[in-house]
């Protein structure tokens, strides 16, 4: 039971740090455009456009 004296404030402190981090992320618009960021990771659109341009130039 003596360990609760240390664990409860420790837990409250880290919960507050997490809450502050969440509020910061929301206010700085870290969660805006979730679909766009996910698609940018999976699909490299810029490289595909470059390859298409190279193919068109080679065909000429």
UniProtKB/TrEMBL annotation:
UniProt xrefs under InterPro entries: Cyt_oxidase_maturation_cbb3 (IPR004714)
Residues annotated as transmembrane: 6-26
Signal sequence residues: none
The organism's place on the tree of life at top rank: Bacteria
Keyword vocabulary terms for this entry: Membrane, Transmembrane, Transmembrane helix
Record protein name field: Nitrogen fixation protein FixS
Species this chain originates from: Candidatus Jidaibacter acanthamoebae
Gene behind the chain: fixS_2
